[in-house]
Amino acid sequence: MSLISNVDMRSGPSADSLLKFARAWPVLFLLAALCLLQFFSRRHLTPTYDEPAHLVYGLRVASGNSDRFDNSKMPVSAFNALPLRLSGMGEQELLASDPAVSIGRARQMTTWGAVLLGLVVFCWAAELYGYVAGLFALGLDVLEPNLTAHSQLVTTDLYGVLFITLALYTYWRFLCRPGVGRLAVSALALALAQVAKYSAAYLYPVYLVIAAVWRWRRSEPPRGWWTYAGAILVYATISVAVINAAFLFNRTLMPWGDYAFKSRLFQSLQRHTPALAHVPVPLPYPYVQGLDHVKYGDESGPGLAFGEVYLLGESRSDRGFFDYYLVAFVFKTPLGLQILGLWAVVRYARHRRRHQFARDELFLAAPALFFAVYFSFFFKAQIGLRYFLVVYPLLIVFVGSLLQDWPNVTRRARVACAALGCWIAVSNLSYFGHYLSYFNELVGERKNSYQILADSNLDWGQNVGYLTEYLQSHPATVYNPPDPRPGHFIIDANLLVGVIPHVQASWLRRFEPSGHLVYSYLIFDISPSDLTNRAAPPR
After folding, report:
1. Please, which residues have CB within 8 angstroms of residue 445's CB and are 6 or more apart in sequence?
2. How far apart are CA 9 and CA 422, in angstroms?
3. Beta strands 309-311 and 314-316: pairing type?
4. N or C: which end of the chain has fewer CB within 10 A?
5. pLDDT for the residue numbered 433
6. Which residues are registered as beta bridge partners of 517?
7. Which long-range contacts (CB under 8 A, 24 or more apart) does 91-100 make?
8. Is the pLDDT of residue 157 over 80?
9. CB-based contact 168:367 (threshold 8 Å)
10. Distance between CA atoms of 271 and 274, rounded to whole angstroms?
């Protein structure tokens, strides 16, 4: 479906060009707004805990070495390192430089990934539901604070969301109108997702489920089995080629028996396949090693692999919470977007005969449902909503369906969508410059955000600069007080709730904070009488 409506053009090509320009400038305006929002809101963010390692690995890959030093770094980070590499900086120079300056330059590249994500969201929603629906979806994408937060950082979270969304969009386009070109583009997008985030590996079974349902519901004569086998071969070949190229063919074809696995799963696979010991693996060693390390971390449990898991005032080290991502979604997603999503589902259910689920919405619903179930029940890294971000573009595209067939959308529906969009914008801008710590209005007083969630949902080290300024202007303040005493204190929220184990800080949990500093740090004013009245140890 073309994004430009078919209209009677009496004045020829010039009128067609004018219409295209008229339809292009709102998209360009929204993307420019995205860039400006990113630029001005990230200026005072200090490097988060994970960014330096991502940048070091990206620079390492850009310099020709893909050996990994942990399980989560991926070759896509070379894109962030590109400005530094082009200036002649190597890994040692990076480690010796000011991290704030280097990471500040590298963050600019993630913004371009956010721009591309916005374009994918617009195109998908516009092709499904029309031009106005596409603009609405793009506006929601620009204003979604969690996407904004991670579009400012040198991590793989935004890239994972981008390429998973792009892969699903191009897969939908290929199945709707099969062709060699669309098959190649779809296979390339799926392959790029594999070098951005390991969770993208689950797209392979999701693709098969979608293809089975899509084929079952089609009325056209079936194609020969060799057609589907050929498509699978293309997807597999391009995936293997791109993964090898991204990891620089690092020890590709290493025999299966030569791997020293850490996870029980991979050790069991290796132990039960002795006949494959000398068979070369057609994937680079760092890629397989990372898969193994990710699985090992998942098997080890949250306490060993990720530290304490915290939710609603309770921290655990032995197991996670099945409702962690549900709670995180409810409290950290703008309420306006949640209402729009619920409205879209209800409206779709009421008018389902107007839609072709197996041809269109299946590509949104199936992966969203899969990732919701997977992260809730099988994923143990409950350290931030950022892992769940992959669901957001799918939801936003679907919300565009509220404005499908724009000329026939009622005035009441238009006003409601505009009002909810304005609510989202106000909620977004109220956290300007502090999007990692965003919570919606359900949290009540913002100083109480720590009672709901912590870790990278609240403080990821991005506000150290504000802390330094505060301590300099308040010299009597004690930072992270080690023992009970009266005074004026400030403490890291993660330290207070136990995400970072620190027994000496537990005494402050008996008191209510009097305020907060940029959401990451809690301020306490404790008098001698307060200390006496609350001398009992916390439960």
Report:
1. none
2. 35
3. antiparallel
4. C
5. 93
6. 521
7. 91/56, 91/59, 91/60, 91/63, 94/55, 94/56, 94/59, 95/56, 99/47, 99/52, 100/46, 100/47
8. yes
9. yes
10. 6
- Angle between helix axes 362-377 and 203-217 (nearest 10 degrees) is 140
How far is Cα of residue 87 from the mean position of the Cα atoms in its chain? 29
Amino acid identity of residue 421, one-letter, is G
Question: How far is 73 from 92, CA to CA, in rounded Å?
Answer: 18
- Which of 27-41, 53-67, 171-185, 482-496 is least confident? 482-496
Burial class (CB in 10 A: 0-12, 13-18, 19+), 373: exposed
- Main-chain dihedrals φ then ψ at residue 95, nearest 5 degrees: -65, -30
Longest dimension (CA), the chain: 85
Half-sphere exposure of 23 (CA within 13 A, CB side): 18
pTM: 0.92
CB 257 within 8 A of CB 291: no
CB under 8 Å to 516, separation ≥6 — which residues? Answer: 446, 447, 449, 493, 522, 523
- 191-222 pLDDT, tens digit per residue, is 999 999 999 999 999 999 998 888 776 655 55
Give, in degrees to the nearest 5, the angle at Cα 37 between 32 and 42.
135
Picking from 533, 531, 521, 516, the residue whose alpha carbon sits closest to that of residue 486 is: 531
Cα–chain center distance at 269: 31
**Rounded distance, CA 185 to CA 120, Å?**
14
Tokens of 460: 């990821």
In this structure, what token pair is assigned to residue 144?
Answer: 């979604």
Do residues 319 and 302 make contact, with C-beta atoms less than 8 angstroms apart? yes
Q: How far is CA 274 from CA 227, 256, 531, in A?
A: 34, 9, 65
